[in-house]
Amino acid sequence: MKTDRRISVQREDFDVAAEVAALRERDSRVGAVAVFIGTVREMNDGGSGRASELTSESESGSASVQAMTLEHYPGMTEKALEAIVAEAAQRFDIFGATVIHRIGELKPMDQIVLVAVKSAHRGDAFDACRFIMDYLKTQAPFWKKETTKEGAYWVDARESDDAAAARWQSSPDR
Amino acid sequence: MNVKVVYLARLREALGCSEEILALSSVAPTLADVLAALRGRGEPWSYELGEGRAVRAAINHEVASADAAVCAGDEIAFFPPVTGG
Predict the structure, then answer these.
(1) pLDDT above 90 covers what percent of chain A?
(2) In chain B, whose CA is at the least distance from the CA of A158?
(3) Looking at the domain A4-168, which fold is it?
(4) Less Cβ crowding at N or C end of chain A, within 10 Å?
(5) Cα(A112)–Cα(A107) distance, integer angstroms
(6) Residue of A122, A121, A131 whose CA lies nearest to A173
């Protein structure tokens, strides 16, 4: 079955309603669209190397993010996203997916990433949307650098993200 | 033979290098040989690309492990674990 795919790595913001409308356009098979939007949080989680330095100022070890810069690996990023969507289409009954990831400088509350999946029923739409995000977090070559009052820091990878992606390996037939 | 080596994100900043052409002398080299050549330069290369560091690699835009073969003209990338999304 043909799966509609739209993959974009871009500096510009995206219009969620327009993207969902484009994904659904003239496709009467669709009974469910699941959408995930990732946005820039103002409070960071504190990198492993600096959480302790900040505890005197902030008990939680977090600092206010003024800006976030997203870097990627041109050429590999698009390929990795294509592969993740192709894998989702193999695992779930979906008709198509849109994945948009922004790069460059972003501010708190800006949109970072959009994953929208269309399917006949909600189960596959929800599962494929989550699968794509979980894999994107661990496989797609993007890196975040946060700027706070204390300086600019590369965000550390999280073990919880690896665990989220690994979950799909232990239940391939979901 | 020559390969192109690309460094990304935190690694690029720590090494002060975004890309370079590297000449390899070994026969039938692997990614491990590339790493060994780079670590042989001393600090900061030996530390940043050292055994205990979380460094990922790709050959021609595909994730690769240390035993992967390297060919002339390949683009090899080293980068930290990814943090997008």
Answers:
(1) 79
(2) B83
(3) Aldehyde Oxidoreductase; domain 3 (3.90.1170)
(4) N
(5) 10
(6) A131
